């Protein structure tokens, strides 16, 4: 099982996680603060997982927990215990969906070593000490994680890696093989001496399935091979924009199932940087009239950000086209990647930063 785990992640059994991964865990900002709902995120490949879980935490706090208003104030006025309940609910919800709503598997590190080292398997000091706990009810999964939350939120806990392991075991190796296609054989991609999450890993967190692509359904690739995209709408969506991506590349275009999730929360990827956009209005995506003029909140995870940025989106003003035309002659005029990623969903939107400095 340890060998299969390595193979699924790295494509080999000798690779081990870099230190930005081993140090990563789930830690909130201070309770009762402007960012009480938000995780502190580190650098490196684990950041995208932390941000994807951030979307689930916001979903729980705004739209799932009972007896609370869906507004920004309710997100900031949360205690340490409410933070912990939100994290347990978010992690359990993702694992339960990955387990096809039948079973979740949670990995914890114990004192005992269960895996003997061989020339084909390099030890890392904690994967060999994993114990797997299988749970057959969603509520039981949430309670189990809450009772062992220190294993995911404690410094030195390897919390993000343990969650990723739990995600893979919940999905099962058999389902994982069916989810992936010829374009993707492993869940992490080597990058500059470390590893980044492939799209299949992020889609597994967002949708419960490790589809390697962001388009709707299945499509044929250049060699007529069948490529796997997103099969259903999920609660949290996904938007992406990169300065080097071409609109002509149909396989890299995000489909409507991720662009229009069931709830107005999006994991955003701008030039490889992950952030969260959300609305506190549950009905935003269920009535097109709501999408004329509306508010979104943006959390970048950057250490410099000390409160969510309040954006106002106007989709019926054509002011942006005029400004763009005028600005073609102004040297150095740049639009924020945040604005560009928002316009992948609302094409001609004007974005008002309400006094905040735009993120670049």
Main sheet characteristics: 6 strands, mixed
Choose one word for the global shape.
globular
Number of strand elements: 14
Radius of gyration: 21 Å
Overall mean pLDDT score? Answer: 91
Percent of residues in helical segments? 25-40%
Order of helices and strands: HHEEHHHEEHHHHEEHEEEHEEEEHHE
Strand order of the largest sheet: 9-10-11-12-13-14
How much of the sequence lies in strands comes to 15-25%
Describe it for me?
This protein has 360 residues and is α+β, with helices and mostly antiparallel strands. Helices cover 32% and strands 18% of the residues. The chain is built from 13 helices and 14 strands. A six-stranded mixed sheet has the order 9-10-11-12-13-14. A hairpin with a 2-residue loop joins strand 5 and strand 6. Helix 5 crosses helix 6. It is globular, with a radius of gyration of 21 Å. About 2% of the residues have low confidence.
In short:
The chain is of the alpha+beta class and 360 residues long. The protein has 13 helices and 14 strands. α3 runs parallel beside α10, α5 packs across α6 and α5 runs parallel beside α8.
Q: What's the structural blueprint in terms of helices and strands?
A:
Blueprint: H1 2-10, H2 19-22, E1 27-28, E2 39-40, H3 47-64, H4 72-76, H5 80-98, E3 104-109, E4 130-135, H6 138-147, H7 150-153, H8 159-171, H9 173-179, E5 188-191, E6 194-197, H10 199-207, E7 218-220, E8 226-228, E9 237-241, H11 256-259, E10 265-270, E11 273-278, E12 293-299, E13 309-314, H12 319-327, H13 337-342, E14 350-352
Parallel strand pairs: 9-10
Antiparallel strand pairs: 1-2, 3-4, 5-6, 7-8, 10-11, 11-12, 12-13, 13-14
Helix pairs in contact: 3-5, 3-10, 5-6, 5-8, 5-10
């Amino acid at each position: 099982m340890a060998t299969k785990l390595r193979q699924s992640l790295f494509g080999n059994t000798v690779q081990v996680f870099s230190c930005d991964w081993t140090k990563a865990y789930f830690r909130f900002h201070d309770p009762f603060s402007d960012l009480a709902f938000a995780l502190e995120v580190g650098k490196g490949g684990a950041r995208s997982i932390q941000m994807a879980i951030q979307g689930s935490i916001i979903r729980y706090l705004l739209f799932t927990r009972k007896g609370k208003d869906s507004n920004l104030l309710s997100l900031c006025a949360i205690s340490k215990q409410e933070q912990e309940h939100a994290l347990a609910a978010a992690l359990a919800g993702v694992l339960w969906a990955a387990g096809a709503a039948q079973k979740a598997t949670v990995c914890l590190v114990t004192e005992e070593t269960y895996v003997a080292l061989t020339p084909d398997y390099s030890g890392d000091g904690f994967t060999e000490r994993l114990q797997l706990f299988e749970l057959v009810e969603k509520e039981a999964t949430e309670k189990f994680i809450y009772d062992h939350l220190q294993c995911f939120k404690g410094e030195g806990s390897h919390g993000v890696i343990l969650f990723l392991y739990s995600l893979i075991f919940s999905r099962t190796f058999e389902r994982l093989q069916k989810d992936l296609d010829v374009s993707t054989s492993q869940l992490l991609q080597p990058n500059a001496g470390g590893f980044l999450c492939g799209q299949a890993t992020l889609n597994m967190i967002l949708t419960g399935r490790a589809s390697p692509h962001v388009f709707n359904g299945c499509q044929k690739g250049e060699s007529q091979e069948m490529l796997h995209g997103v099969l259903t709408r999920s609660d949290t969506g996904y938007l992406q924009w990169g300065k080097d991506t071409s609109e002509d590349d149909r396989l890299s275009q995000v489909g409507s199932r991720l662009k229009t999730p069931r709830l107005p929360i999006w994991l955003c990827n701008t030039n490889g940087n992950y952030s969260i956009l959300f609305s506190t209005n549950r009905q935003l995506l269920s009535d097109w009239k709501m999408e004329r003029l509306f508010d979104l909140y943006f959390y970048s995870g950057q250490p410099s950000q000390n409160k969510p940025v309040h954006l106002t989106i106007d989709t019926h003003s054509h002011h942006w086209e005029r400004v763009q035309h005028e600005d073609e002659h102004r040297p150095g005029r740049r639009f924020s990647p945040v604005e560009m990623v928002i316009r992948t969903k609302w094409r001609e939107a004007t974005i008002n930063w309400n006094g905040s400095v735009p993120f670049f």
